[in-house]
Each structure stands twice: as structure tokens, then as C-alpha cells.
Design brief:
Elements (H helix, E strand, L loop, with lengths): L4 H16 L3 H8 L3 E10 L5 E12 L5 E7 L5 H17 L6 E6 L8 H15 L8 E5 L5 H15 L23 H17 L6 E5 L3 H12 L3 E7 L2 E4 L6 H11 L8 E3 L1 H5 L5 E4 L8 H6 L4 E3 L8 H9 L3 E3 L1 H4 L2 H14 L6 H26 L3 H20 L6 H5 L1
Parallel strand pairs: 3-4, 3-5, 6-7, 6-10, 10-11, 11-12
Antiparallel strand pairs: 1-2, 2-4, 7-8, 8-9
The structure holds nicotinamide-adenine-dinucleotide (NAD).
Nicotinamide-adenine-dinucleotide (NAD) binds next to helix 7 and strand 7.
Length: 420
């Protein structure tokens, strides 16, 4: 993660605004977060002391609905980065046409240094500090780097205590017992699976297309299982210690067992390859599902896949992206290929709002339907405007946010008139 993520986001928004011919007043709205809150987060340490760390919650846009975005616990996140992440969330929710905007929250702390009671104290304190700015119809946090189900359960509980009302829809990514949704844990992989199949069909790949997946965590491991079950051949997977390759197709259950027993996929049967070799393996589909910036210019030159589905956030650098486009590689960008998680987060929020519990099958069907419609929309924009898919996604998302801003800003009093 770099400090100029916000600049990168604004640059991408401006490029989309140029393509759409948006007026300056809409660009000005898109450039600034609607709400930006900086808070102190005091928490109780195990030795009875109180420590204070900074926290932020940013709502970039609520033009299409309540802000939506993760909560990150990390020692090195800057305020500008939070703005950038919140901005990209607005685009992501718009690309998949959810009735939501974009937001992001951060607590600048290293959670690995904290005990469980300290983490709970910190999470509850953060929730109290931002309670006036969040809510089921205002801004709905979710998990992100270093936060998960138990943090969301604490946040939902603390918010209900503060407001005196049971409001599980204030956050998503909760446990089932606390009002979470079935299918949330596999949502990102399931969404990416739809992208891989749609891309494979468009490119005329064989049903047993060869897939390489970088990263064997929540997104990557579930995806490997799903695609293998669909008849595709997962010929390479990797984790932070390296990769394993079998041109005939890996036995994914055996790879998962090897990872569980020996902490890495490299203990599984197959040829061991390093990270760079994995990205250059002979395959049809490449899915980066690990790190930001994983594919740089040198790797982009060596990629042999015809289709890349970005399950990870920002796995391809801007320069690498240009090379891939020039080489004719189809890249389905992260705002769509990794959107399964936020889509099922939206379903969780909708279930909470209506006190419903959807079946796993209902969640899966609605997720697939939402992804397919977004893919159709994306390909339509790309072909009518002759754009690569990443630019087309920005045009699609920014266009939808701009239309909502236009529709809501009908008050004839301009900011200049108000100031006079
Ligand atoms: P995770 O922590 O569960 O798994 C990450 C995996 O990447 C691990 O297997 C890790 O060993 C591997 N890895 C780390 N460094 C690597 C390296 N240098 N080379 C190869 N592999 C490496 O994380 P996750 O939840 O699966 O998320 C992965 C990516 O997907 C992230 O970019 C995340 O932002 C994105 N994403 C995840 C979700 C979700 O719901 N899980 C939603 C949207 C986007």
C-alpha cells in the first residue's frame, strides 16, 4: 500500500470523468470524501493502563446509499490512504450496482501486539468513538485487513448498547449467531468463479481450462476448490513460501491438507516453483489472490495466461496493466472480480434490515445473478466505448455515482450563493 493511493484513485476518477464528459461540479464532489472523522481510541491494556491510538472513519459517497467499507487495524495506514480506499469502495459498490456508497475505517495499531481482551477493548472503544457517524442507513463498516467476524460481532454489540436498540445491520461480516449471512466466507471466491467462467466463455477457452492461483488463503483456496469442482484444472497455486505446479491438475484437497499439516502448499505433491515462476506458468487463466502489486512490469511480460481475474485488491501495477493490455491479455479488474464479498455483505445488511435469513442457495443464486449482470454491463461499456476492462469499470462506476449526485443535487442554491 502506498501513500499516494488517494491520488491514484483521483487520477482514475478523472480519466473516467473525461471519458464521460462530466462537469467540474461533479468532479469536485467525487474528489472529496463527504465525511471524514478522526478520533482518539483509548483502550485498556492487560496491566490496567490506558493507551490511546488514532482512528478514522471516512464516508466517501452516500449518493447511491449508505457508505460501505471495511475496518482495517494496521500500524502504518495514513489518512490519505483511508480516503483513497473509501473512494475505490464507492466505485466498487457502483460497478456491481449495489444500493450503497463507499467508506473505509482504520485504527492505526498493530493488532498482533494485543491480547484478545485488549483487542475487544480497542474495537468497542473505536465503535463508541465513531457511533455518531455509522448506522444501518448511514455508514455500514465491514471486516478488512486484520479484522474479522469477532471484531464485527463486538462492533454490532457495542453499537446496540450505545444506541439502546438491537441494530445488527450497522456492520456486516458478523458470525451467523450475531446476524451474519450464509455464504459470506466463500463469497469472494464464488464471485470470482463467475468472472472466470464468463471470461473463459468469451475467450472460447476449453471447459477444462488450466488455472493458476497466487495465494491460498480465504479467496484463493475456496476458488481453487470451486473451479476444480467445475471441471477446470488448477495447475498451480502458491502462498507466501512458494508455489506448487502440476500440468495435469493439482489435487486441491491434498494441497489444502498439506497446507494445514505443514503450513505451506509447497509440501503438496508437484513441482515446487517460486513466486515469479508461478506467475509465468503455462496456463489459460491467472488469478492473483494474495497481494497488492504482485504483478509488476517484468512479470507482466512473462504472463502466459489469456485471462486474469483480479481476486486480490490492486494486484497489477499501473505500468504492468498497460503491458498486459498491449499484449492482449484480458484483465477483469478487482472492482468486479473481487466484489463477491461486498455483494454478500450487502445481502447480509438487507437480511438484517428485514429480519430475514436467506438460504445458502438463495445467497449463491443472487450473487451469481448480480455478478453476471455487472459483467454484461462492463462488457457493454468496454465494447461501445472501445475501452479496456479496467477503464470501462471506472467509467461504469463513476457514471453511476455521477448520475446519483446529479439527481440528488437538484437544489437550485449553489455553494457560491450559500457563501454569499
Ligand atoms: P488471506 O490472508 O486469507 O490469504 C492470503 C494468501 O496469500 C495466503 O495464502 C498467503 O500465504 C498468500 N501470500 C502472501 N504473500 C504471498 C506471496 N508473496 N506470494 C504468494 N502468496 C502469498 O487473504 P484473503 O482474504 O484470501 O485475501 C486475498 C486478497 O483478496 C487480498 O488482496 C484481499 O484484499 C482480497 N480480497 C479478499 C476478500 C475476502 O473476502 N477475503 C474480499 C475482497 C478482496
Amino acid at each position: 500500500m502506498t501513500i499516494d493511493l488517494h491520488e491514484l484513485a483521483l487520477h482514475a476518477i478523472d480519466a473516467a470523468a473525461d471519458e464521460l464528459g462530466l462537469p467540474d461540479r461533479i468532479r469536485a464532489v467525487l474528489h472529496q470524501p463527504e465525511r471524514s472523522l478522526a478520533v482518539q481510541v483509548p483502550y485498556r491494556t492487560d496491566d490496567g493502563a490506558t493507551r490511546i491510538v488514532p482512528g478514522f472513519r471516512v464516508a466517501h459517497s452516500t449518493a447511491r446509499g449508505p457508505a460501505k467499507g471495511g475496518t482495517r487495524f494496521h500500524p502504518d495506514v495514513t489518512a490519505a490512504e483511508v480516503d483513497g480506499l473509501a473512494t475505490l469502495m464507492s466505485v466498487k459498490t457502483a460497478v456491481v450496482d449495489l444500493p450503497l456508497g463507499g467508506g473505509k475505517g482504520v485504527v492505526t495499531v498493530d493488532p498482533k501486539q494485543l491480547s484478545e481482551p485488549e483487542l475487544e477493548s480497542l474495537t468497542r472503544s473505536y465503535t463508541r468513538a465513531i457511533a455518531d457517524s455509522i448506522g444501518p442507513s448511514v455508514d455500514v463498516p465491514a471486516p478488512d485487513v486484520n479484522t474479522g467476524q469477532r471484531h464485527m460481532d463486538w462492533m454490532a454489540d457495542e453499537y446496540s448498547r450505545v444506541t439502546g436498540r438491537h441494530q445488527p445491520g450497522v456492520v456486516t461480516g458478523k458470525s451467523l449467531a450475531a446476524g451474519g449471512s450464509l455464504g459470506r466466507d466463500t463469497a469472494t471466491a464464488a464471485g470470482c468463479r463467475t468472472v472466470v467462467h464468463a471470461g473463459a466463455r468469451r475467450l472460447g477457452l476449453d471447459p477444462d481450462a488450466r488455472v493458476v492461483i497466487q495465494g491460498f488463503g480465504n479467496a484463493g483456496a475456496h476458488l481453487a476448490r470451486l473451479l476444480t469442482g467445475d471441471g477446470m484444472r488448477v495447475v498451480g497455486v502458491s502462498d507466501s513460501r512458494g508455489g506448487v505446479h502440476d500440468p495435469a491438475g493439482l489435487d486441491i484437497d491434498a494441497v489444502a491438507a498439506a497446507k494445514a499439516d505443514h503450513a505451506s502448499v509447497i509440501a503438496a505433491d508437484g513441482e515446487v516453483v517460486d513466486s515469479d515462476e508461478l506467475l509465468a506458468l503455462d496456463c489459460d487463466v491467472l488469478v492473483p489472490a494474495a497481494l497488492e502489486g504482485a504483478i509488476d512490469t517484468a512479470q507482466a511480460e512473462r504472463v502466459r495466461a489469456r485471462l486474469i481475474a483480479e481476486a486480490a485488491n490492486g494486484p497489477v501495477t499501473s505500468e504492468a496493466d498497460r503491458i498486459l493490455v498491449e499484449r492482449g491479455v484480458t484483465v477483469v479488474p478487482d472492482v468486479l472480480a473481487s466484489a463477491g464479498g461486498v455483494i454478500v455483505s450487502c445481502f447480509e445488511w438487507q437480511q438484517n434490515q428485514h429480519q430475514e435469513r436467506w438460504s445458502a442457495q438463495h445467497v449463491a443464486e443472487r450473487l451469481e445473478d448480480r455478478m453476471c449482470r455487472a459483467l454484461d454491463d462492463l462488457w457493454a461499456v468496454a465494447s461501445s466505448r472501445e475501452l479496456d476492462l479496467r477503464t470501462a469499470a471506472m467509467v461504469l462506476g463513476v457514471g453511476r455515482i455521477a448520475a446519483a449526485i446529479e439527481q440528488r443535487h437538484t437544489d437550485p442554491v449553489t455553494p457560491a450563493e450559500l457563501a454569499s
